[in-house]
Design a protein that fits this description.
The complex is a heterodimer of chains A (about 140) and B (about 850). Chain A is an all-alpha fold and about 140 residues long. Chain A has helices at about 15-30, 35-50, 55-65, 70-95, 100-105, 115-140. By secondary structure, chain B is of the alpha+beta class. Chain B is built from 21 helices and 31 strands. Residues about 415-420 of chain B have low confidence and may be disordered. Classes of the chains: A mainly alpha (about 140), B alpha+beta (about 850).
Chain lengths: ~140, ~850
């Protein structure tokens, strides 16, 4: 029998680099991709003309068309709408000098205006994520 | 497996949309529809307004509104006051409705829902008792009659209907994302406006100002102590007074005879007593004639005192059409300027406080309550079914019984006449009558002289106001004005016998006989809710008015103003006068009872003795005086008149109490009857309450006597948002702890929650030189997200006034005009 010798693999600097890159790449991919761009734009257009929950339809449809896994659908839907709501909320907060947001932040249990923006971002993302994931899973049935 | 996963995920997604799209009650708190509310596309985020950049050039927008007959130009100044220029009166009032709705829609709807007893539709079941009270008192009944009166006047009809159309034109253009933030917070949508709502709003002013009634309480006192004591402790004129119509004013009418007094009636007493009117509510006004004024023409001042709220009670507007150019404060919900001026005249109002609310004890035939006894026969009761829609569709019904007097507001089951037949108390209230208040204001807006003013006043019914007047023809005047029942003296001081026709309101005082004076020799007129006249006036208006302190102080200061020296500023300073006449009167007597102050009392006594009796914000003495005098007042009277919550009574006035302390210091009334084996003296009460005051203040202010005891801190004037009931959850929408002096019996009548809701001073001038100055504690916009929500509060706090922009025409160029809105006629078919 031929003896086999296990030669331990020496960590390759390039491999490490690739691992780190792949994490950043993955994150970048979540925010910047055809699916997220689609959902971002569709949700934006929907909400300008229709009630807020139509963002769920945008996420659902977008994921149904473009997503290749439920994880991707959830992540990219959440990312797209979170960013959309974050930018929009921050825009109003900044241009108005926080005149209303600071007051509302005292009424809701969010602490301060930053908490309010965070809560806004979270809610938008949450609804989109589940709607996107549902879109992918439902399409997969057919 | 795939199916289950897909279905579950879909269920979660849909579920989230549903849950976040509606409001939820969590215990006592309620959460708005979180998804909708936080959405930066339709939620509260879009209600925020960016501040207007400095040095911005005038912007212009155009809108077409169906229903307008011609173009209307609206110019907004730097405070957001709209100056409306219309080519006919229909368009003028339609525009007034439109711009008022644009700034104050939520407030208009909320306040009219309150007046209509419909709050349950907005806030749910917790408002049911409040709603029931409004409707049982007949507020809707009264508004319906009012409206009949208003539309019988052709000009009034145009105004009230056009106003309504204007409000609706604004609402028609609103998408959910444009709703005011309170709608989003509470989760409902604006409802269409209608003329009945304007009537309801005006009736609500009657509620606030002319529903104060002590008849039920006085009857309980009568039953317990008898007529002699009741009349002794509750006399029919104060000991010290400076009446509105000065002593010696000439009388220009021949009075009618008073009706026969109804027989004394004890009745069965009452366990219910309508809420006593909030004490801080009243007002001041005065005018100096040309002789006193530095310019030779009169100056007029007015500051109505109401509960300070946000959005503000008042809304400034300038109204211009071919037959009118008037500036002043309006009430969001009704057309016309209510307090204001035009180029020739100025006017203002304070509350009269007449006795126009009487209670009649109803004798029902039997337990079915279908008939009642009156003038020797059984008469039929009318039933009116009121339906309350609680939020989310649940309906509650209430049947209100009506007699010819008015609604039976209370059914006392406690002490029935005969077994199982409850005793009812029916309400006769002037606010139930058909009325034309709108015509009065319509005509005042257009008045040019004294005769126009008197003509305008003749249409007015309620709430009775002391209408003050000044003109550039050098006339000043004041009329104690309203529709007053012609009564025997003190008729209505106690509950009346509902079976006795002599006790009914059988006639009214002719308008021309209302108390009035024009160009009196003292060269000023004034009112501060005190007694309308001296005791020589031939008719009976009321047995009790507001305490005399403010009126006395105002008259004293105006008397002292040297001729030819009064300016706008002198009148403004009088509006801010913080002198506490009540302290001036009471302290010498109160301090005389504390002969050897204890260690705790000594610093208080020193502070009070060295105090100049002025309620300035940083003074400590006003705080000590207020707490001590309140405690002493309670200590004297609670055992006699406040011992049983089922037998509501009231306390004798401060004026009567002082007389008792001065003239009868050994009086039995100072004894606390609840301590059976002891007889208290006034000295003991004074000392005990002073110690208690110091102890309490140490606890409340969390320190011994120090600057934290400052009057403005203790008083803590709060200007609250209409939904901020307790100063808790919605505190951020209110302005709290405003640093300002004053007090309840002070000319600057600012208390914890009430105060001058509008301050105006007008200098009359000839040839278009009349100038107005004014401010109110709030802002033109009802939007908490607008810089104009509260931008006038600081000016008001400091006691300053803004110069009011009174444009001659829409083409007058002014750097103060920042925005122009052109409303055009809609081209398409309606």
């Amino acid at each position: 029998m031929k003896p086999t010798i296990d030669i331990p693999k020496v960590p390759n600097l390039d491999d490490l680099q690739n691992q780190k890159n792949s994490f950043i790449t993955k994150v970048k991919e979540i925010f910047v991709s055809p699916l997220s761009a689609f959902i971002f734009c569709a949700a934006l257009i929907c909400q300008v003309f229709f009630p807020w929950w139509t963002l769920a339809i945008a996420a659902f449809v977008g994921s149904a068309i473009f997503a290749t896994s439920s994880g991707e659908a959830f992540a990219k839907s959440t990312a797209a709408v979170s960013v959309l709501w974050l930018l929009a909320a921050w825009y109003y907060h900044f241009t108005t000098g926080g005149i209303l947001s600071n007051k509302i932040a005292q009424i809701l249990p969010v602490g301060n205006a930053t908490g309010l923006i965070a809560a806004t971002t979270f809610i938008g993302g949450l609804v989109a994520g589940w709607a996107g994931m549902a879109g992918y899973l439902v399409r997969r049935l057919f | 497996m795939k199916y289950i996963k897909a279905l579950l995920t879909l269920a979660v997604a849909v579920g989230l949309c549903y849950v976040l799209n509606r409001g939820w009650a969590i215990g006592k708190a309620s959460l708005p529809a979180v998804g909708k509310f936080l959405s930066p596309f339709e939620g509260f985020w879009v209600n925020g307004e960016a501040p207007t950049p400095e040095g911005m050039t005038k912007t212009e927008t155009a809108l077409s509104i169906p229903g307008l007959q011609d173009e209307v130009t609206i110019e907004y100044d730097e405070l957001g006051v709209p100056h409306i220029f219309a080519n006919n009166n229909h368009d003028l009032y339609m525009a007034q409705g439109y711009v008022t709705a644009k700034d104050r829609l939520w407030q208009m709807e909320f306040q009219t829902h309150f007046a209509a007893g419909r709050l349950t539709e907005i806030v749910g079941a917790k408002a049911l008792e409040q709603d029931r009270y409004q409707r049982r008192m007949g507020s809707v009944f009264g508004a319906e009659h009012s409206l009949e009166g208003m539309i019988s006047d052709p000009e009034g009809k145009v105004a009230i209907e056009a106003y309504s159309d204007g409000v609706n034109a604004y609402i028609a253009n609103l998408a959910p994302k444009d709703f005011p933030v309170e709608y989003k917070l509470l989760g409902y949508a604006p409802e269409k406006w209608s003329p009945i709502k304007s009537a309801l709003f005006l009736k609500n002013m009657s509620f606030v100002l002319a529903s104060g009634t002590d008849d039920l309480r006085m009857s309980n006192i009568l039953r317990k102590y008898g007529k002699q004591t009741a009349e002794d402790l509750f006399p029919n004129y104060p000991f010290v007074e400076s009446p509105i119509i000065p002593v010696g004013a000439p009388r220009d009418f021949t009075p009618l005879a008073l009706p026969k007094s109804p027989a004394d009636f004890m009745g069965t007493g009452s366990a219910n007593a309508s809420v006593e009117r909030e004490k801080g509510i009243g007002s001041n006004n005065w005018a100096v004639g040309g002789g006193k004024s530095a310019t030779g023409l009169p100056i007029l001042a007015n500051d109505p005192h109401l509960t300070l709220s946000l959005p503000s009670i008042w809304y400034q507007v300038q109204l211009t059409s071919p037959d009118v150019n008037v500036y002043g404060s309006t009430m969001p919900g009704t057309p016309n300027v209510i307090i204001g001026f035009n180029k020739d005249i100025a006017w203002g109002v304070t509350n009269v406080g007449a006795d126009v609310v009487d209670w009649y004890e109803v004798k029902f035939k039997d337990a079915t309550k279908k008939e009642y006894w009156h003038a020797g026969q059984w008469k039929k009761i009318t039933q009116r079914i009121e339906t309350y829609t609680v939020k989310n569709g649940v309906e509650v019904k209430d049947t209100v019984l009506y007699t010819h007097h008015g609604p039976v507001v209370y059914l006392d089951n406690e002490k029935p006449y005969r077994k199982n037949i409850p005793v009812g108390h029916a309400l006769r209230w002037i606010a139930h009558d058909k009325s034309q208040e709108l015509t009065t204001f319509y005509k005042l807006n257009r008045a040019k002289n004294y005769d126009d003013y008197v003509k305008a006043l003749s249409f007015y019914t309620a709430p009775a106001q002391n209408f003050i007047f000044a003109s550039n023809q050098n006339d000043i005047a004041i009329w104690v004005n309203g529709k007053f029942p012609l009564k025997a003296r003190q008729q209505g001081k106690y509950i009346l016998d509902g079976t006795d026709p002599v006790a009914d309101w059988n006639a009214f005082i002719p308008h021309a006989h209302n108390p009035h004076v024009k160009n009196p020799t003292r060269e000023f007129v004034s009112s501060a809710n005190q007694s309308s006249t001296d005791q020589n006036y031939p008719y009976y208006i009321n047995w009790e008015f507001a305490p005399a302190e403010r009126g006395r102080r105002i008259n004293e200061r105006l008397e002292k103003m040297p001729r030819g020296k009064a300016t706008v500023d002198s009148l403004r300073m009088l509006q801010n006068d913080n002198f506490n006449f009540k302290a001036y009167d009471l302290l010498p007597t109160m301090l005389s009872f504390v002969k050897s102050p204890s260690v705790v009392q000594l610093p208080a006594v020193k502070a009070l003795e060295s105090w100049n009796r002025v309620n300035n914000p940083d003074e400590i003495a006003p705080t000590i005086f207020k707490v001590w005098s309140d405690f002493l007042y309670e200590a004297i009277w609670k055992d006699d008149f406040g011992y049983d919550e089922n037998i509501p009574m009231k306390y004798p006035t401060s004026d009567r109490t002082l007389m008792l302390m001065k003239k009868d210091p050994k009086s039995k009334w100072f004894d606390d009857v609840s301590t059976k084996d002891k007889v208290e003296t006034i000295e003991e009460l004074a000392s005990r309450t002073l110690t208690a005051a110091m102890d309490s203040l140490m606890i409340w202010r969390k320190s011994p006597m120090s600057p934290t005891w400052a009057w403005s801190e203790h008083k803590s004037t709060d200007i609250r948002h209409l939904l901020d009931l307790n100063g808790t959850a919605l505190k951020s929408l209110s302005t709290n702890d405003v640093k300002i002096g004053g007090g309840g019996s002070v000319v600057n009548a600012t208390t914890e929650r009430t105060g001058p809701s509008w301050r105006m001073v007008v200098q009359l001038g000839k040839d278009n030189s009349t100038k107005g100055y004014g401010v109110y504690p709030g802002g033109q916009s009802g939007n908490p997200g607008s810089p104009h929500y509260d931008d006038m509060i600081e000016t008001w706090r400091k006691g300053e006034l803004n110069e009011l922009l009174f444009l001659k025409s829409k083409d007058e160029a002014s750097p103060r005009v920042k925005k122009v809105l052109k409303l055009g006629v809609s081209k398409g078919a309606k």
